[in-house]
Design goal:
Elements (H helix, E strand, L loop, with lengths): L8 E5 L8 E7 L5 E5 L10 E4 L3 E7 L1 H10 L4 H15 L2
Antiparallel strand pairs: 1-2, 1-5, 2-3, 3-4
């Protein structure tokens, strides 16, 4: 059994039209192997995508800013998602 992603965790998309891009987990599905992801750019928070976790590569980094925002208000700004992903990519050096 794979580990379940956390809200705010950065993931790399392995399948679909967003393949190769990074996104942030913004919601979890209880019984299914699915999560909701958004990147704040092409995939905005209001049009978040439901993805099978088998099609995602979980990154070892979780954004506490996104997680806190989701727990407090139930949403997160697209700007914050873009910022978190940009900082992650800069640190990773891609």
């Amino acid at each position: 059994m794979r580990t379940m992603p956390q809200i705010g965790q950065i993931v790399k998309v392995l399948r679909g039209k967003d393949e190769g891009s990074f996104a942030v987990v913004v919601g979890l599905s209880e019984n299914e192997p699915y999560v909701w992801i958004a990147d704040g750019n092409k995939r905005r928070f209001d049009q978040r995508k439901r993805k099978n976790i088998l099609h995602l590569e979980l990154q070892p980094e979780t954004s506490s800013e996104v997680a806190d925002s989701m727990h407090e208000t139930g949403r997160v700004t697209n700007g914050k998602l873009r910022y978190v992903i940009q900082k992650f990519i800069e640190r990773k050096g891609e």
